[in-house]
Design brief:
about 75% helix; mainly alpha; two-stranded antiparallel sheet; 3 helices; 2 strands
Length: about 100
């Protein structure tokens, strides 16, 4: 949930920054002051870095969500493995019993 909120906040901040950059008048041939040009370039670079971070966060979100549920690794991997093996053994016993009864 935290990654999702982080992604949304970053997207809003970058959108606002892009609106600000879009409103700035940047024409290098018009003889503007160098200080004004630096702000436009800096805001443009910050928005590019923001888009990169949004992409990284979204990749993490996509990697931890499977079939609509967040993947939470088990606390004790050995007990999770044993539980999985137990379930498979039970399923095998049920299928072998049903095959022999026919």
């Amino acid at each position: 949930m935290g990654l999702l909120i982080t992604s949304i906040i970053l997207q809003l901040l970058v959108a606002i920054l892009l609106l600000v950059v879009g409103r700035m008048d940047y024409e290098p041939n018009r003889g503007q002051r160098k200080r004004d040009n630096r702000w436009v370039v800096a805001f443009n670079d910050i928005s590019t870095a923001g888009i990169f971070f949004i992409t990284v966060v979204n990749i993490f979100i996509a990697s931890f969500i499977a079939h609509g549920k967040a993947y939470i690794p088990p606390v004790n991997a050995e007990s999770a493995w044993n539980e999985k093996m137990y379930q498979q053994r039970k399923a095998w016993e049920l299928t072998s019993k049903s095959n022999t009864s026919h």
